[in-house]
Amino acid sequence: MRVLVTGGAGFLGSHLCDRLVAEGHDVLCVDNYYTGTKDNIAGLLGNHRFELMRHDVTFPLYVEVDRIYNLACPASPIHYQRDPVQTTKTSVHGAINMLGLAKRVRARILQASTSEVYGDPEVHPQVEEYWGKVNPIGIRSCYDEGKRAAETLFFDYWRQHSLEIKVMRIFNTYGPRMHPDDGRVVSNFIVQALRGEPITIYGDGQQTRSFCYVDDLIEGMWRLMESPADFTGPVNVGNPTENTMLELAEAVIRLVGGPSRIEHRPLPSDDPRQRRPDISLARKELDWEPTVALEDGLRETIDYFRHRLAL
Ligand code: NAD
Ligand code: UDP
Ligand code: UDP
């Protein structure tokens, strides 16, 4: 198949491109390098099945493909808040363009949505039926509401134009190729521990997240795309093991060793207090569940950063 991956030079996108090329597909990677880098896909550049195009998805794109994975969008709060208007445009105009493309060539299309559509959730763990509690005017809204609008567009193209859609609600994912300055908690803690700097916990550290290792996530994404046509999602894909940020910091310090101590910083506004996916639907429809334990995934990620930072 000919497969388009938008945001393919990013953290998740580059792992997805690796997987698709390994499965024998022709992959077109589209990225404007806002947060992604060519380094992430350096290993694929000489491969005749792989093609790279610099392009911003807020502009139309005319190509011929059979599958579209729409991942283009900065995912870390510091990056998506740097140019919030562009973040909303990327989610909304990007979705319209990719859906328009999917409609013209009758391609199946998958949207990388997010657990952020649940906002600061009142239902725990989060099930797909929950509509979420999202601030429409806060500093996270460009991301949360952009992704919610993208989901709306996907379901309207499905109802109105009978497109084959797949909506995947991705929960916090980590692993090699996260950017050292990405700003997300796992990369921050590991880079700080490796450099012997203080580990910065925002707030009291009692807020929770559930961390999925990238290989598990890509397996779930692949299974969702190739699931029967009548299964649209939305479906949660993430690891149901929940940890406080304090527990994560302690695990990173233990695995890295070294002198780092914990320092507390102010909690950013609208920071969700707890997050854990209910993955019953993914288990049932995709026969999928994560297999990599947090400690094992952290070890792999620590090795990557140790090598990358040459520490
Ligand atoms: P990332 O920032 O590493 O990758 C995003 C990629 O999109 C980058 O390569 C970036 O350059 C590209 N991009 C941004 N705006 C673009 C535009 N207008 N046109 C073309 N390319 C553009 O982030 P990631 O962690 O790999 O996330 C990938 C997708 O998965 C995102 O849509 C994100 O919202 C979603 N997601 C990720 C997580 C996670 O924990 N990593 C969780 C939930 C959802
Ligand atoms: N589009 C695109 N590539 C295509 C087809 C469409 O980028 O191959 C974009 C184009 O910008 C268009 C948008 O997708 O405006 C939505 O397409 P659709 O056909 O749904 O609506 P249109 O705006 O063309 O009426
Ligand atoms: N966080 C933290 N220290 C950091 C970076 C993040 O304590 O250096 C916290 C952040 O406030 C949030 C959690 O870790 O409660 C996860 O943050 P991240 O940005 O990784 O993801 P998201 O909030 O989008 O789930």
TrEMBL record:
<dbReference type="GO" id="GO:0033320">
    <property type="term" value="P:UDP-D-xylose biosynthetic process"/>
</dbReference>
<dbReference type="InterPro" id="IPR036291">
    <property type="entry name" value="NAD(P)-bd_dom_sf"/>
</dbReference>
<keyword id="KW-0520">NAD</keyword>
<dbReference type="GO" id="GO:0048040">
    <property type="term" value="F:UDP-glucuronate decarboxylase activity"/>
</dbReference>
<dbReference type="Pfam" id="PF01370">
    <property type="entry name" value="Epimerase"/>
</dbReference>
<dbReference type="InterPro" id="IPR044516">
    <property type="entry name" value="UXS-like"/>
</dbReference>
<feature type="domain" description="NAD-dependent epimerase/dehydratase">
    <location>
        <begin position="3"/>
        <end position="238"/>
    </location>
</feature>
<keyword id="KW-0456">Lyase</keyword>
<dbReference type="GO" id="GO:0042732">
    <property type="term" value="P:D-xylose metabolic process"/>
</dbReference>
<protein>
    <submittedName>
        <fullName>NAD-dependent epimerase/dehydratase family protein</fullName>
        <ecNumber>4.1.1.35</ecNumber>
    </submittedName>
</protein>
<dbReference type="InterPro" id="IPR001509">
    <property type="entry name" value="Epimerase_deHydtase"/>
</dbReference>
<dbReference type="GO" id="GO:0070403">
    <property type="term" value="F:NAD+ binding"/>
</dbReference>
<dbReference type="GO" id="GO:0005737">
    <property type="term" value="C:cytoplasm"/>
</dbReference>
<keyword id="KW-0210">Decarboxylase</keyword>
<keyword id="KW-0963">Cytoplasm</keyword>
